[in-house]
Amino acid sequence: CNSRGGGGVGVGFGTKAEGGTMMAKLGLGALGEECGDAAKGGHEPAEEASSAIPFAVVEPGAERLGVCDPQAALRRMGHLRALRARGAKNHDGHWDKAEVDEVMPKEGLFARPQEEPSCVTHMVTMSDGCEIAVDVILPPKSGKVPCVFHQTRYYRQWRLRKMLRPLETFPMDPINLAFKKAMISRGFAIVSMDVRGTGASFGQWTSPCQVKEREDSVEVIDWMERQPWYNGNVFCFGISYDAMAAMFTVSKKHSSVKGCASLFSYFDVWSDLGAPGGVLLHYFFDNWNQLLHALDSGRLIEAPQPLGASFVAGFKGVKGVSKGLVKKAVATHDTVDLAACLREMGHRDDTPPTLRGRKMDDCSPYTRAREMRESGVPLFLVAGWLDGSARASINAFCHAAAVGGSRLLIGPWTHGGVQNACLGPGQRSDFSSFHKVVKVGRSKLVAEVIRFFLDLASDSPCSPERQDKAITYFTMNAPRAIPSWRTAGSWPPEGLEDRTLYFGFGDGEPEGGLSQSPPRRASELEVQAGQEGDPLKINSRYHTMIFVGDLLNYKRLTRCGHPFVDSRPLDCHLEVTGTPYVDLWIVSSHPETDIIVYLQDYDPTTGSANYVSEGVFRARHRKLYPASSGEGHYKSSIPPDIPFFHTFDKADAELLEPGKPARMVFEIMPTSYCFQRGSCIRVAFSGSDERHYLHNTEESTRIKVLCGPEHKSSIHLPARALQ
Predict the structure, then answer these.
(1) Are 556 and 537 contacting, i.e. CB atoms less than 8 angstroms apart?
(2) Which is nearest to 188 in space by CA: 253, 234, 134?
(3) Crossing angle of helices 177-185/444-457, nearest 10°?
(4) Are 646 and 28 within 8 A, CB to CB?
(5) Cis bond before residue 510 (omega within 30° of 0)
(6) How do residues 41-96 score in pLDDT, each as one tens digit?
(7) pLDDT at position 536, please?
C-alpha cells in the first residue's frame, strides 16, 4: 500500500528520514518525540505544497441575490437543469452483467431445485467437553466436495413458526440464506456452527471472539476432515461478527483453509466500531447488547424494537437436534454485558472488570494481522462507505491479506450491504440493487463471493492483470459521464494528491471560508459542547448497523445549527477517495473535550447541504506519532493513506489545560465521493452527539476552533480533479 498518489508497497512512509520529509510536507511537524510535542501545541505546522484545487470566481454581488430576486430565480432554474442533465450515477448495479450470468444463471422467480439438499445437525464435543451445534448441508448426489465454513452468533438455523414451515425449502438462516443457496447450487458443502455460548451450542459467551471460540473453530475443521464428503478444501465465510470469527480462524494457520470471504467486518474494534477517535459509541453497543441477550436467552421479544416483534412474528427460536437439548444449551448461556463493559473503559488498553481482565484489542482481528498474512490465505474483503467496515477492510487488505489472490470491494452501502446510501443532492437511500436483500432478483454480491471461491477451488493462479484490479470501489455522486465503479491495484489508488484547505472564520475573502492559503489574521469559531433539546434523531450510519431496514437519512443534520465553514464553488468535479483528516487548534474551558467534524457537500444555489462523512475525537488522546514509527499490532490499525496515528493508551492520555490552545489531528471516516462542479466543500463542527456517543463534557463548556498565522487549522483531502 502506498501514500497518497504513490504506487509502492509497504506501510507508512519508509525510513524515519523519509517519514520526516513526508510529515513536513503534510503539515504534521517533526518526527518522533517532536511529533508528540506538536500534538500538545508546541510545534507550528508547515505550509502545504500540493497542487491547487480549481475554484470558480464568484461574481461581485452574486451572493446578494435574494430568494425573490428574478435573477436568482433564473439562476436556480438553470442550475437545476444542469444538475438534472449531468445527474449523479448512484445506482449500485454490477459493473459487468456477464460475470454474474457466468456464476449465477438466471432462474424463474419461484424456481425450486429438482432435488433438495440434505441437512443434518450434529453436536460436536470440544476437547474441554463443551458441545457445539453444527449443521452439515450437502448438495444432492455429492461425493467429495469443498466446504464453506460458517461460524455465527446469530443462530445458524432458525425455527419457523408452524404456519410458515410449509414455505421452508432450505435451512432457515435469514442473514445468509442467499449465500448458502448459491453455494450449494455450485457444489459446495456448508458447515455452519453456533459459536460457544450462543444458539443451540452449550457454554458461555464471555467476550466477542473469545479465545475458546477460536480454538473451537480449529477443532470443528479437524472434525470435518474425518467426514466422508470432505475433499480437503475449506473456505471461511461470514458477515459482520461472523466475518471477524472467520478472520480469526485464518490466523490459526490451519492447512485446510484455502480462502476467506469477510463481508462488512471490523478489524480494529476500538477504532472501527467501539470508540472511533477515542469517543465511546454507546448507540451501537447498547442496542447490540440488547439483541445478543435476547438471542442467547431465547427471549426474542426482548430484542430492540421493532426487531423483537418481527422475530416473534416469524420465528420460535434456534433450531437444534431436539427442543429438549436446545433448552439445556440455552440454560448454560451466560452472555457478557457489553453495555456495562463500554462504560468501564476510557482507553484502548483498559481492562474492564466485565471482560474479566481482557482488553478490547483481545477481540480485534488486527492483533493477528501478521499471522493472517503468514497463513498465505487469500481474503475477499467487502465493505460499505457508510459503515465502519470501510476503514476495517482497507486496513485488513493492506496489512493482513495475502499478496496474491486477495480482493477488496467497497460499495456505497450501509452495514451488511442492505442499502445503497445514494449520497448527494436530494439524498434518498434505497435498498441495494447489488445485494438485493430486499429486492427480488439475483444478488451480485453473492455472485462475487461464489466466483472468488470457485477460482480458489479450481487452483487458478491470480494473473498480474487481475491483481492490478484487485480493488473495486464505488465513487458516490459521480456524474453520469464518469464511471462510478473504479479499479485499482493498491490502496490508495494512484493519482490522488493530498490537498490542504485552511480554515478562516472572517467575513470576507480571503480570510473567510476554506482557502488553499493560510489565513493572514487570527480568528475563531465557537462550537457548542452541550446538546440543546432532543438528541439528534436521524437514521445515521450507526443506526443502520442494527436496524438494517430503516433507510439511511441525514437530511435533518443540517437543522442542528452546527457552525460551519465553506469553500468557494468548485470549477471542476473533485473526487475525494480515501481517509480525509483534520488538523485543528482548539481552546476549551473544560479539560475533557470532544469535537465532531462533518464533511458536507453544499450547493450555494439551492442552499442544500448533504452529508458526506464525519470524524470524532476526544482531546485527551491527541498525542501524535508518525505512521512510520508504528510497531507491533498498532501498525496494522494505521490507515495506509494517513501519516500519523494515536495509541489511545492510558499512558499517552493528557487532559486539556483550560484556556490554553491545543492541537488535535484526527481522521474523518474514509469515503469516495465526487463534489460536482459548482458545489462547495463544507466542514461543520459540533461538540456533542449524545444520541450516539458517550461524552464527558459539561454543557457549559465553551470550545473554540482557532485559525490564523500561529494556528493553521486545516482539512486534508485525498483528492483529484475529474474532467
Answers:
(1) yes
(2) 234
(3) 40
(4) no
(5) yes
(6) 333 333 434 467 877 765 544 444 444 566 666 666 666 666 666 667 788 988 88
(7) 60
- pLDDT tens, 568-598? 999 999 999 999 999 999 999 999 999 999 9
262 is written with which cell numbers?
469477510
Residues in contact with 225: Cβ distance below 8 Å, sequence separation at least 6, in sequence order: 232, 256
Distance (Å, whole) CA 90 – CA 474: 9
Sign (positive or negative) of CA dihedral 103, 105, 107, 112: negative
Distance CA 503, CA 514 (A): 5
What is the identity of the amino acid at 387? Answer: D
CB atoms within 10 A of CB 100: 21
Assign 102 a pLDDT band (cuts: 50, 70, 90). confident
3-state secondary structure 340-363: HHHCCCCCCCCCCHHHCCCCHHHH
CB of 640 within 8 A of CB of 688? no
Residue with cell 452527539: 689
Q: CA angle, 395 as apex, 415 and 432 as ends, to 5°?
A: 25
Ramachandran angles phi, psi of 328, nearest 5°: -65, -40
DSSP string, 62-80: GGG--TT-HHHHHHHHHHH
Spatial distance between the Cα atoms of 484 and 434, rounded to a whole number of angstroms: 13
Q: Tell me: pLDDT of 355 over 50.
A: yes
499: pLDDT confidence band, cut at 50, 70 and 90?
very high
What DSSP state is assigned to residue 570? B
